[in-house]
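Record 1 of the preview.
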Amino acid sequence: MAVTENVGMEQLKLLMTYTVFHVGVYMTLGGVMVGLLAKKTTDKGMRCWIIGALSLFIIAGICGGVVAANIPYHESFKEFEQAWIGPWGASHIFTSRWWMRIEHWAFWLGLVVFLVGFFKTGTWKGWEESKADTPTAGAARRMD
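->
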């Protein structure tokens, strides 16, 4: 019985580490997107895609935060997985498993939204052109 309890606790620790890492990724990518929105050179069409992706990353971050905030109140992964949790102590919203699913779906959907916008608006062409215009673009080539 003690071995099973240790395994459950170890799974909770891994889930916490995993969730904290994910929330950090959402914050980093969200910061990049806010930076792109702040640039005046960002295409207006791309701004809509960025706002959509950023909104989904915010949802993913909220779900990850709910999961991470509720882990300490449980003694095993199995118990936590079946528990009804919510923000600020509000329970009976979703099971933790659903919070984790929403977190993952929101992140991946946000990434897809950003990439679709990136390619659909032709933003990638502008980035390629701006790289070629930089003074150091040809510095790496050997001139004979």
